[in-house]
Specification:
globular; mainly alpha
Length: about 375
Amino acid sequence: MNKALLSLAIGGFGIGLTEFVIMGILPDVATAFNVSIPVAGHFISAYALGVVVGAPTITAFGSKFPSNKMLLGLMVWFTVFNTLSAFATGYNSFIILRFLSGLPHGAFFGIGAVVAGKLSKPSKEAQGIAIMFSGLTFANLLGVPLGTYLGKNFSWSVSFLLVGLVGIMAVLGVKFWMPFLKNSSDKSFLEEFKIFKRTELWLIILLTTIGTGGFFAWYSYIAPLITEVAHHTEDIVTYAMILAGLGMVIGNFVGAKLAEKFSSLYAVTIVLIMMAICLVINTYAAHDKIMVLVMTFIIGVVAFSISTPIQLLIIKASKGSETLGSSLNQSAFNIGNASGAYFAGLPIAMGYGYTSADWVGAAMAGTGIILAGIIILIRKHK
């Protein structure tokens, strides 16, 4: 594997680890800071807010610097504030550190996706982007279970020290393996933001937010789905998460193949159709102990098949400001994370059961299909 691409994958592993490990150790963090679990959920929101704020602003400001220097700086920032998070003394300090830790997330993936495409062989850009995102998927497969185990059996702070260790590895990888890469844009800050005038770009951002929100509607409530609906014991949840992570690893590379075989827009549409179908099937399959685990793996494959095609889609729609457009997709993913969990929680709170989250997810994926159809029609009439 190209060592420069490997350094991006290590960075992606660290980012995936810090984003998702908090969900597994949330009760421990809540106990440590003497707050309720819903209040501790603010730490997840603070990180997501950091991603949404940091992605467009840092990327636009940083477009004047060499891309390799920007990636190095972002990983140093990531490492410092995630390591400091392990030493937070209370709610206020931890929530500020979580926000600061989230700031480089979107910019790293945004710049990294464009860089991965440039580092790849001609016509193999999708594979290069998939290698970078493989770090995120392997984090779900290996890093998050390990971080959760360490957090529960030793201390929640150990989980963040692990993130800091991965961050150091990423810093060293980018420093010594990433070649010199010129700045991504010579445009001024205001000129960069002119891409917001493009209707198609807004539609893609909306598609990412709502369509991928369908996955998060399911993933946010996977634990109670397995224990309350399928009636598995709680220890099975860990294995189910590993199954989902394995599916994500495979799906990431399936998505790259789809993006090479079809246009990125058609690949995204195909994945969203499959996601909607799988989530509807899961509303029935979740009642069976075996089928719920099978579907956990399958949904993991399908959900992460969208990563590379949708990243390519927005890069192509952001011609002239590709890095900024690429980073915006990360903001959209995180808004989709929050909105998927929120909307899926509404029918659950009304007493419709945990399978209702899958119906919400299917509806969100279906809305993404409609938006993809609108983009296809607009392109045909140009």
